[in-house]
Design goal:
The chain is built from 8 helices and 5 strands, in the order H-H-H-H-E-H-E-H-E-E-H-E-H. By secondary structure, the chain is of the alpha/beta class. Strand 4, helix 7 and strand 5 form a beta-alpha-beta unit. The chain is globular and about 45 Å long. Strands 3-2-1-4-5 form a 5-stranded parallel beta sheet, with helices on both faces. The protein is 40% helix and 16% strand.
Length: 208
């Protein structure tokens, strides 16, 4: 797609409303998926995420734009490899909770009404509602086998990381999606939370 996308890439200002561009990005991401470490294409799961994202009519204020559907699937597959039974998510505009709830109890920390209503509707649609719960605060007692967050702007990312570490049980895992320019800030926080890197995977998560 390098040729067709060139005008958009060169201008540096692609339109969020450009349906043609969004479709090409989805196709490119799907083509790339098998080359990511440990990733396989699951057409049913991919269709579920694609449809759920398409039905999100309003963008939540606290979240960035969703990741491409194949990227969401890759991320879920990385988390599933550790077989968590209790998962804590910090926001979920990507709709990853719908896939994770197929095999785990998922608690979603968000105060965004748009996110809650959308995921409640989607969970009822595909039968995952009983395995999805919404939280306003992280429990004081460590309760989770895994937590996921996107590490972003200073302050918000740091606070979310601290809460994720507090919520995960001993022996659990914290999964973090990193994008420039916040990688360095994140790695500087590892020692403060007594965390060590178990896996570092490049090109797993691509935003629209």
């Amino acid at each position: 797609f390098g040729g067709p996308l060139a005008p958009y890439i060169e201008s540096g200002d692609p339109s969020d409303d450009d349906a043609w561009l969004q479709q090409r990005l989805r196709e490119l991401d799907a083509e790339y998926a098998p080359s990511a470490v440990g990733a396989t294409q699951d057409s049913v799961a991919l269709a579920k995420i694609t449809a759920a994202q398409a039905r999100l009519r309003l963008m939540p204020m606290e979240d960035s734009a969703p990741a491409l559907p194949s990227s969401v699937l890759r991320r879920v597959q990385v988390m599933r490899a550790y077989e968590p039974r209790q998962v804590l998510l910090f926001g979920d505009v990507d709709c990853a909770s719908l896939l994770l709830a197929e095999r785990a109890e998922v608690h979603l920390l968000t105060r965004e009404r748009v996110t809650r209503l959308h995921l409640q509707r989607e969970a009822r649609r595909d039968g995952a509602f009983d395995h999805l719960r919404f939280l306003d605060v992280v429990p004081e007692v460590p309760s989770y086998d895994a937590a996921y967050l996107g590490y972003g702007p200073i302050g918000r990312g740091t606070a979310a990381l601290a809460r994720a570490v507090r919520g995960v049980k001993a022996g659990g895992h914290v999964f973090v999606s990193l994008r420039a320019p916040w990688e360095e800030a994140f790695f500087q926080r590892l020692d403060a939370h007594a965390l060590k890197v178990v896996e570092y995977l490049r090109e797993v998560d691509h935003p629209y």
